[in-house]
Design brief:
With 93 residues, this protein is mainly alpha-helical. The chain contains five helices and no strands. The radius of gyration is 21 Å and the shape is elongated.
Length: 93
Amino acid sequence: MKWTSIIAIYSLFWVMGAFIVLPFGVRTHEEQGIDMVPGQAESAPANFSAKRIVKRATVVSLVLFGLFYLNYVEGWITIHDIDFADRYAPGGN
């Protein structure tokens, strides 16, 4: 696998991981017992930390990309394992 492919695929895993971990550990002002600013949405987070999201997304993406790369090298799951259309086509195996 080329290094440019590795960077591109890892970046996709990182963005996906960031969206996965985004809601975890976030508390609203009501849950924290903090006064809200006038005009603020009730669902706005009181303890948002970009560093925490970046760290968690990095860990999740490293694990997911590691599994992806191991599958790429070892061939645990191939396209033939997930090609269900050919199995059920007339005359298919």
